[in-house]
Design a protein that fits this description.
Layout (H helix, E strand, L loop, with lengths): L1 H18 L27 H14 L3 E6 L3 H12 L3 E5 L14 E5 L5 H5 L3 E4 L3 E3 L4 E4 L8 H5 L3 E7 L4 E2 L2 H4 L10 E3 L4 E3 L5 E3 L6 E8 L2
Parallel strand pairs: 1-12, 2-3, 2-4, 4-7, 5-8, 7-12
Antiparallel strand pairs: 5-6, 6-9, 10-11
């Protein structure tokens, strides 16, 4: 007990000394730098292999995964919206305009920062890009950056179509992902559709976000 007490007091003295401009003070026991020499990646980082691994793990988390080339992307998006029966689709203001070029007869609801949760609840689908995707965990990361919009945009509509550009937006592992993300941005990490389980382990989807997540993996071509 006394050892723990001394550790806490040493850290308080160090913090007080730093705030007072007298230096950081002596290092508290246990504050020595810890070597972090673990592996940053555990498999082949070949772009084609990572694309296949991401596809496999997203599917394992019950996301619906589609492959497309850049030239096929507008038609792929239009097909998915039509298959879902969508009549309206919410968009970030900076979504590339060509992505919806083939989606005729579908109303685009562009978010200018004023869309409310009530308005979004009446929208059939939302279409966004992403910040990056992690192949080993089957995770798509959104951080309100280009083509992503506000966090609200992807939490309220029941159907989310997310575009991942390969290979530049795909990383192998979490240690590869974190240095590429800005920790001050509002991040949302998505592995499959929103889901939760009660004490009986009955899975319920769509509680905290979209019930259906469709990911389009776009390669050059």
């Amino acid at each position: 007990m006394s050892g723990s007490r001394e550790t806490v007091l040493a850290r308080i003295r160090a913090a007080i000394g730093s705030e007072a401009g007298t230096g950081a003070g002596p290092a508290a026991p246990g504050d020595e730098e810890i070597p972090r020499d673990y592996l940053a990646v555990h498999r082949d980082e070949d772009p084609a292999a990572l694309l296949d691994l991401l596809h496999e793990n997203l599917t394992d988390y019950r996301a619906l995964v589609h492959r497309s080339t850049e030239s096929e992307l507008p038609a792929t998006i239009a097909r998915l919206l039509s298959a879902h029966g969508s009549r309206t689709v919410a968009l970030p203001a900076d979504l590339p305009p060509g992505w919806l070029a083939a989606a005729t007869g579908i109303e685009a609801v562009t978010d200018d920062g004023t869309l409310t949760a009530g308005r979004l609840d009446a929208v059939d689908s939302v279409l966004t890009g992403c910040a990056l995707a992690v192949a080993e965990t089957g995770t798509v990361v959104l951080d309100a950056g280009p083509a992503q919009g506000r966090r609200l945009l992807t939490l309220v509509p029941d159907h989310h179509i997310c575009v991942v550009l390969a290979p530049e937006q795909i990383v192998a592992s979490l240690p590869r992902a974190l240095p590429r993300l800005d920790p001050t941005r509002p991040q949302t990490w998505v592995s499959g559709p929103s889901a939760t389980s009660d004490i009986e382990l009955d899975r319920v989807e769509g509680v905290h976000g979209p019930r259906t997540l469709e990911v389009i993996l776009v390669s050059e071509g």
